[in-house]
Every structure is written in C-alpha cells, then in structure tokens.
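ESCALATION

Customer reports they have been waiting on this structure for their group meeting. Please prioritize. Original submission:
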Amino acid sequence: RSNTRLVILDVVASDKEGRPVGDLTADDFTVLDEKQPQKISDFTAHHLEPTTVAAQRLAPGVVSNAPQFKASSLNVVLFDAVNGDFGAHAYAKDELLKFLASAKLDRPIAVFALQSRLQMLHDFTTDTETLRAAVEKYKFPVVVQTTQSMESRISAFGSRGDYHSDDRSIRTTLNQLNVLAKVLGGYPGRKNLIWLSESFPVDLFPDIMTQTSKSIADQSAPGPSVKETIQNEMPFTDYAALIKKVSDALMNAQVAVYPVDAGALGKDDHLAAQQTMNDIAARTGGRAFMNRNDLAASMRTSVEDGSTYYTLEYYPTNKKWDGKFRTIAVKTGRPGVRLRYREGYYAMDPEKLRKQESERVGEDFSRLLQRDAPAATAVRFQAGVVAPSGKSRKVTVNFAIDPHTIAFENRDGLEHAKVVCTVWAYKGNDTEHPTRSDGDTVTATVNPEIYRKIMAKYLPCKRDFDLKPGTYTLKLGVIDRTTNLMGTATAMLTVP
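Update from on-call: job pushed to the front of the queue and completed.
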C-alpha cells in the first residue's frame, strides 16, 4: 500500500457535428490537476465492438458472480421511485417500456429501481423482451408527498421549488446511490447511468456548482464566495460527508450520469432540480435531458453515447489529502475536437478512506446480502451448494474464490490473504428474516509454491449450516478483508 490514489478518467471525444473521434493517442492529451500538468501513467482507447458473452460452463448446483457480458461500455437504467410523484413514476415507466419495445441493443443494459432499498429488476442483458417483461412486472411503491408548495396547489400554470423531495428522500437517494456505485465498481470500464427521475433532490457536486447567477465582479466582492455560501446552506451542511462519499464512489466506479427528467413538459417549474441535473451530468461526463415529452428518445441517445472513449490514468503530484474538491482539465492539441469527462474528484486521504470503509463494511455487506440486492462482482467466485441428504438438515456451500480479485500481501517471504465467506438463507417469500451463516475471517498464509498453485486455480472457503424443510433463496457473499472489496451471488435451494 502507498499513501496515494489512482485517478481514472474516461474521456469522450467528438467533432463539431457530434460524431465520435476514435483515432487519438496519449500524446494528443494533456491532463491538468488544479492547473498543474500530470503524467499520464496509462492510456487505453475503447471503440464500439460487438458484445461478447462470457463462456461459463457450470456444473449443476454451481453458481458464479462473474459478469456474463464483455463490452466496451455498460448501460444502467435507474428507475427512481423515491423522488417525484405517482404521475411522473407512471409516465416514466410507460416511456421506459416504449424505449425497450423499439430498442435494438448492441450493448448490455441492466435495470434497477431506486426505492427504500436498491432493487435490481434485471441483470445485464441485450434481450429487450426479457427487460420489458421485468419492467412490466415491477410495481413501484406509492409515495405520499407532503412537500408540495402552496404555489403548486393554487396555480394552473406553474410552481417553483423542489416540491417532490424531502429529507428522507435525500438520505435514501444518497445511500442507495452509494450501494449502486459499489455494485458497478466491480465491472471494468465506463458505465452510463441513465437516471430516470422527476426530482433530483441534491447536487452531488455542490462545491463546484456552475456560478451562472454571479458576475465576475460579484466574485471579487468582499464576503463569502459562492462556493463557501453553497457549502454553508441546506441541504449540503447536513449531508456533506455522505455527498462526498457517494460522489467519490461514483467517480471511482467510472460512472457517467445521464439524468432524464421524468417530469417532462408540465406546469411545474422545477428549475432547481434541472440545474442539479445539468451539474451532475457535466461533472461526471454524461448528458442531461429535460423539457422533453419523448423520454424514450432521451434514453436511446444516452445508450448510444460514450461507446467510443479513452481512459486516462494518473497519480496526482499533490499528495496533500485535505478532502477538498480538485478540478481536472483535459485538453487536446487536435483542432475541432470537443472533450467530455468528469471534472474533478475529492482529495480524500486513502488511509482514512480505508479506515472508514472498514468501519462501515458490515453495513455495506448487509445491504448487498438483501434478497433483492444485485450481484456484486468486485470479488469473483464460484460456489457449489450441496443440499441435505437422508435425515440430515446440513447444507454445505463450497466457495472457489478467484485469487486474482483478492489482495495478497508479501511479508517475510510468505503471501497473506484474509477473506470472509457468508451465506444468508431467505425462506419462501420472506425478505426480512434470513437464516444467517456468518463465517469468521479465513486467513491464508502460504509459501511461494502454494501461492502459485492457488493463483492457477482458486482460494477455497466453506460454510456449513442447518436449514428446516422448505424452498430458500441463498445470498452468497465474500469479503476481502484487506481491501474490503465484496462479491455476492444468488442460488436457489430446496430442503426436503
């Protein structure tokens, strides 16, 4: 370990007509961190290539959390059932179904629902019929909003304010976005997050908000700056630490946000939410779509965007980790080329971050082990489930962990790794009271010869526990205790 961090930038390059530019090299780019030139340590060009399906031949009773698809970029639709009202949710769902009915997918899409807990409606696939069936089946919860303004009630033409968000919505949104970032962080490459919502309750990057309402003269005037004023106002003061955590997680996971305003063209004036949409899109390298009734067209454009891009990596020369936001600028010497990329990161202390992650690892892992939680793939494994036989009620789960996804530390000529394997069993339709089999930390301390054998095969881990007769949904999980990276998978089991 070293007290530094790697900054990963995905850069979309286009010409004046908006067509992708795919022939740039590392020498065509200059990266500035707080206006200081940085050395590009790694450079990769990504072009639109046919999506391939990973070949996995699994024995009966064996499951895997390895990603099924390999593509240059992935697309995620986030159906927001927390922010906004019933009418916007219904309209957004209809438009999502309309998009899936007409789309011809050459890259995989996953669909998630943002509610009190993040719910995966369907994993990554290019099968639009399967996605459409999953969305049709989904019934979003009815939320009674109490924050509607008086102007919205009395006016037939317009209202102002963030009228469909409250304190609970903000906290729920941030917590579930953090879960989604952890899930998507296990997939390589760029992820386009199409956030389908009527109300975007909080800016994820308030301390670099575009200062369109202030002139240059205002900025030089005595008193607090716009940046300072924003950070001293609600809701940033209440959620400052959580906002930074979520923003950093999304950026580290290479997520570009594409907000789509589900409110479309209506009587309500929600300029604050639209400003937030623009800011989130600009800061992450995505695009915002608003004031349009054809939401399906907006989603189609979002999916097509960013298929050709470049990944630039660098280690910041400034090692002062003060938690403040640092701006990034990427320039190219190629005339007529426009660049889109995330505009910065929070300079969080890497050691402090690791400590915070260790303190919260139990909470984060518990979220990923919920019955309807999506699979996490940062730590990859296969697992074989052995059902009870005879009069025994003993269930055995044998984990085979991919050693390339966990961290081995070399000390005293030996290789050391620490993992935890866990199984939660949900009986029938129960989603709240699993039978838990939480394992202790398994420590592997091996010599170079055994280490080579493990790297050529897998690292084993095993869980045994008893279950009463019934049908169960098993959530299988692995944590690397060195890095706190996680992997989860789902298996079905019937105990006679």
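Sent to customer with the following note: Residues 146-164, 208-222, 224-236 have pLDDT under 50 and may be disordered.
Escalation resolved.
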